[in-house]
Write a structure and sequence with these properties.
Order of helices and strands: EHEHEHEHEHEHEHEEHEHE
Oligomer: single chain
Bound molecules: S-adenosylmethionine
Largest sheet: 6 strands, mixed
Shape: elongated
Number of helices: 9
Strand content: 15-25%
Number of strands: 11
Length: 261
């Protein structure tokens, strides 16, 4: 009988293949099977050995080609077959990536596993568009929230805490619910002038960003057509973008889709 294999849950980072960690690149390069998500780029998959099996279990919003329980079963089955599996996820496996659900399943079945972190989209996007997530005097903390809940259940967030003007708010998967998110924040007292940046395809050559404010975000979004993942950064720190991007522009040539003040 073949000895049991192992599963490494690997963060592929926000998109730019150069933002992959060395440890992640080594794990990919020694994988026998790669089970990967939609946001993992071809350039990163190309690091796998030519003979490695590649299994796409990517999901789109409202559309789950491979249900999570089947992904869990697949990982267990592959490892039981003695395979060295890399489970490759966009960003970081433990930030809105269901990495912990998969780790719990592997643990339950006694499959050895390891986690390799990745740069999450918030950090990738922030650096790429020159917006710090915290800054003395502007933000004492940062919160990552999901703008999309399970099976389209209503958004159940700590709205009062999120409306704190000293907190930078990063919204993942928020595009379809951004109207509700903005309304709730404004109702709880976050200023309409609070700057916001929406970043589409952060760190990739197709990156686009939209600078706006809470009060005008909904209208401004209707002037752009984003394709691919979008992340919102909301808070006073966004006001530093115009200053920092002047010197950072050589490295972060981000075309501004529109600028509204
Ligand atoms: C299911 S979550 C996965 C997050 C991932 N685990 C991470 O740590 O970044 C997918 C959401 O992450 C955000 N996202 C991921 N990559 C992005 C990118 N390159 N640009 C903008 N947003 C991104 C988007 O909000 C997208 O809807």
């Amino acid at each position: 009988m073949k000895p049991i294999g192992k599963v490494t849950l690997v963060g592929a980072g926000p998109g730019d293949p150069e933002l992959l960690t060395i440890k992640a690149a080594k794990a990919i390069a020694s994988a026998e099977v790669i089970v990967y998500d939609r946001l993992v780029s071809d350039a990163i998959l190309a690091l796998a050995p030519a003979g490695a099996a590649r299994i796409n279990v990517g999901k789109r919003p409202q559309h789950h080609p491979v249900p999570q329980h089947e992904i869990n079963d697949l990982l267990v089955r592959l490892a039981r077959g003695g395979r060295r599996v890399v489970r490759l996820k966009g960003g970081d496996p433990f930030v809105f990536g269901r990495g912990s659900e998969e780790a719990l399943e592997l643990q339950y079945h006694g499959i050895p596993f390891a986690i390799i972190p990745g740069i999450t989209a918030a950090q990738g996007a922030a650096a790429s568009v020159c917006v710090p997530l915290t800054h003395r005097g502007l933000a004492t903390g940062v919160r990552y929230v999901t703008g999309h809940c399970r099976e389209d259940a209503g958004l159940d967030l700590d709205w009062r805490g999120l409306a704190d003007h000293r907190t930078t708010l990063v919204v993942y998967m928020g595009l379809s619910n951004i109207g509700e998110i903005v309304t709730r924040l404004l109702d709880l007292g976050r200023a309409a002038t609070t700057p916001v940046v929406a970043v589409n395809n952060a760190t990739l050559p197709e990156e686009r960003c939209l600078l706006s404010t809470l009060g005008t975000l909904h209208a401004d979004l209707s002037t752009v057509s984003f394709e691919g993942p979008v992340l919102f950064i909301i808070g006073e720190v966004v006001s530093l973008q115009s200053v920092l991007s002047k010197i950072g522009a050589f490295a972060n040539e981000t075309p501004l889709a529109a600028v509204a003040q």
